[in-house]
């Protein structure tokens, strides 16, 4: 099955079970001060669970664009270095708002995986919440009993609060979850060690694909737990991981979702992906291609959803992701000219039927990415040279001082996490406290300057010669590129 068919089969399946199919909410979370980006399928339905609104149907299903690069869920550092965490990914989900509960939800997930997708039953493990006495939450006997009938006791794992209990916050709706994991290792490896021992152990081929959350309690301010009169189901399945399993691959990047982009990157840089196997997580050519194929999606869809790269908040997160990708392309694939922008049309074409917002704004997104690339590539080389000089003076395993981290950010536009990444590659750490101090001092200075200046903007008039000075990474929404007339 192609990824398109896999997605469609999910939606068709839940439609046949009486679900209303709705579009994905934008990547950028709207009207939710606690969330920068949508990081799960349920985010757009939060109000329904809190009783602050009525859903258009008691049964809903969709595919939601998610971004996990900030806050509680931040997978950014893993991306490229593993084969199954992305910044942006699709989360397939089905919901019951006070309608069906565990019996139907678990039976349908089993039916879909094993009968529609025909995944091998003997490669599937499920987890059930084992209870937590201290916290007053009971063992999920109900889920255990349902799974026992379908998968058998020996495939059920008991999970702790960290993996198998969901809560929105210190108070509010909460409940146990039941995860579904799949073992994609070769048979010889399976024979040598049971997949059961590898569940939730960060093995790249024994991965969690689906989480079924059962909201059945409410935590009160005094810590007590009451049963909710109306119980809800919230599920989330990682689409890219599901495609990996169905397409018989061992890495998300080997599916048709990413292969398309990777092949274009290969052509553009003249290097091959996966020369030593596509599961290699130490080869920087491969890491760079995975990072670019991944970050391209996050950046393009975020811009299409209205989040332009900028110097503040969500915009700065997008700029950081883009710069991270540009730096990988520059250092490991030899790109010295804009390349991400050339990939936007490839992505837009691939997703035109699922998320048409990108195709509809293809030119605009391409232009934004291109401008960002051009401006960052102008200082990237000089910044890397500066970093090399400093690191040559730093003893092995040492710390890059805060002033340098600040200089790289202020003059060369290197986000702190990018400098931290460069440092890590060489076995250094960065002095974050020192950086914060330098930043605070600079803020102070510019506050004093701002009192003197009439505008944030430095006009660059036609015809004159200007020397590029760097970026002002400080003031929210201020002009970022600084020039001086020469
Ligand atoms: P993991 O333990 O692998 O980090 P999770 O427990 O954080 O996953 P959930 O919050 O339960 O994930 O999200 C539901 C599903 O979304 C997961 O079962 C997984 O298939 C998928 N998923 C979660 N994070 C990512 C990611 N960064 N990239 C791709 N898929 C993801
Ligand atoms: Mg996670
Ligand atoms: Mg997990
Ligand atoms: Mg989970």
UniProtKB/TrEMBL annotation:
Q: An example Gene Ontology cellular component term from the record?
A: cytoplasm
Q: Where is the signal peptide?
A: none
Cellular compartments annotated: Cytoplasm
According to its UniProt entry, the protein's GO biological process terms are: alanyl-tRNA aminoacylation
Q: Does the keyword GTP-binding apply?
A: no
Q: Which UniProt keywords apply?
A: Aminoacyl-tRNA synthetase, ATP-binding, Coiled coil, Cytoplasm, Ligase, Metal-binding, Nucleotide-binding, Protein biosynthesis, RNA-binding, tRNA-binding, Zinc
Origin superkingdom: Bacteria
Q: How is the cofactor bound?
A: Binds 1 zinc ion per subunit.
GO function term, MF aspect, one: tRNA binding
Q: Where is the Alanyl-transfer RNA synthetases family profile domain?
A: 1-486
| Cofactor(s) in the UniProt record | Zn(2+)
What is this enzyme's catalytic activity, as reactions? tRNA(Ala) + L-alanine + ATP = L-alanyl-tRNA(Ala) + AMP + diphosphate
The similarity annotation says: Belongs to the class-II aminoacyl-tRNA synthetase family.
Q: What does this protein do?
A: Catalyzes the attachment of alanine to tRNA(Ala) in a two-step reaction: alanine is first activated by ATP to form Ala-AMP and then transferred to the acceptor end of tRNA(Ala). Also edits incorrectly charged Ser-tRNA(Ala) and Gly-tRNA(Ala) via its editing domain.
What is recorded about the domains? Consists of three domains; the N-terminal catalytic domain, the editing domain and the C-terminal C-Ala domain. The editing domain removes incorrectly charged amino acids, while the C-Ala domain, along with tRNA(Ala), serves as a bridge to cooperatively bring together the editing and aminoacylation centers thus stimulating deacylation of misacylated tRNAs.
- Protein name as it appears in the record: Alanine--tRNA ligase
